[in-house]
Amino acid sequence: xxxxxVKDKKFVLSIPEKExxxxxxxxxxxxxxxxxxxxxxxxxxxxxxFIFAADLLREITLPSQISFVKLASYDGVSTTGKIRxxxxxxxxxxxRPVIIVxxxxxxxxxMAHMLETLEGHNPSSIAICTLxxxxxxxxxxxxxxxxxxxxxxxxxxGYGLDYDQYGRNTRDIYTIEK
Length: 178
Ligand code: IMP
Known about the structure:
Blueprint: E1 3-6, E2 9-15, H1 17-34, E3 41-45, H2 50-57, E4 65-75, E5 82-87, E6 97-105, H3 109-119, E7 125-133, E8 146-150, E9 156-157, E10 173-176
Parallel strand pairs: 3-4, 3-6, 6-7, 7-8
Antiparallel strand pairs: 1-2, 2-10, 4-5, 9-10
Helix pairs in contact: 1-2
Bound molecules: inosinic acid (IMP).
């Protein structure tokens, strides 16, 4: 059993790179088919999606653009309470089909907030494309149209995902040792 140490925790190999790349290619083919004749804008959510986005985009054959974004939330001086903003959005998405590229959907709250904020920019459509989904943890109703792999409710690292900002730099995905 292949294990790695990330800071104080041990992780066990759970999804080899070959399997990840096969699923990334499958999802990219679905996007190429579904968006034929369109020019989607990919919005890759930093930090965790940087490796997934690089592999996914190289399988996309459509004319397309990509922006690397972050979701910022802060308490504003407004009656509506929390203000949310997408940082790094340097492409005008008005009237464009948007595909959000996320590393992992866990509770789904991050994606729910992202959708709400992006809708304010009036894109023609928004779809979520995630590398990983933990279906048991989902707390909100969310349409995750493109998903590479579904995983159990365990903490994972690798292929861009971190534990305390470490462990992003492995080719395979590892699950925390119980
Ligand atoms: P959500 O808002 O609960 O869906 O959380 C999504 C974010 O939590 C992801 O973009 C990741 O940054 C982080 N996250 C959730 N589960 C894991 C995990 O197992 N490993 C590493 N990061 C995770």
